[in-house]
Specification:
Layout lengths: L1 H9 L4 H16 L8 E5 L7 H5 L4 H6 L9 H11 L10 E7 L4 E9 L5 E5 L10 H7 L18
Helix pairs in contact: 5-6
Length: 160
């Protein structure tokens, strides 16, 4: 297993798979003693700007051509989610929802991932979680753990 994890970590395309495995293992371990999940997986793909939002940008052709670049993500929306997750949880706290990306629609779907009051661990995955360009550092400061290869700025594939 360790060899498989190392292989996934060493390859950029393995982020989603690794985050999903970590979340599943946390829930499997928790379910040995409790009936509910303790962890949820939130891929950053849900924070892609929709095609309609890209079309409304000042240079839509460039936005579509560069979809996946930092400026084509709803960074403020992601920061808002992380901030919401830092509010104290109570048994009656409302469920917080995160978007997911629907590959068939080629657009994000809002409120697709439920983060219930029983969710104690949220595993985020995405290219820009450690990016030094705003607004990503604001979210990174709120994360309990940040794993990865570091997050460059504009010179390392950051924003324009």
């Amino acid at each position: 297993m360790e060899e498989q994890v190392t292989r996934l970590v060493d390859k950029a395309w393995g982020k989603t798979t690794l985050a999903s495995i970590i979340t599943s293992r946390l829930n499997e371990r928790h379910q040995r003693h409790f009936a509910s999940d303790i962890a949820a997986f939130v891929p950053m793909d849900g924070y892609h700007l929709s095609r309609a939002q890209l079309a409304a940008l000042p240079d839509p052709a460039r936005a579509f051509a560069r979809r996946g670049a930092p400026f084509t993500f709803d960074g403020a929306g992601f920061v808002s989610l992380v901030q919401q997750l830092h509010t104290p949880l109570f048994h009656r706290s409302p469920t917080i929802y995160a978007p997911a990306f629907d590959h068939a629609l080629q657009d994000p779907t809002p409120h697709a991932i439920a983060l219930t009051p029983q969710t104690r661990i949220v595993v985020f995955e995405g290219n820009y979680l450690a990016l030094r360009d705003p607004p990503w550092p604001e979210a990174a400061r709120l994360l309990d753990e940040l794993c990865g290869h570091g997050g460059g700025g504009a010179e390392a594939g950051g924003s324009e």
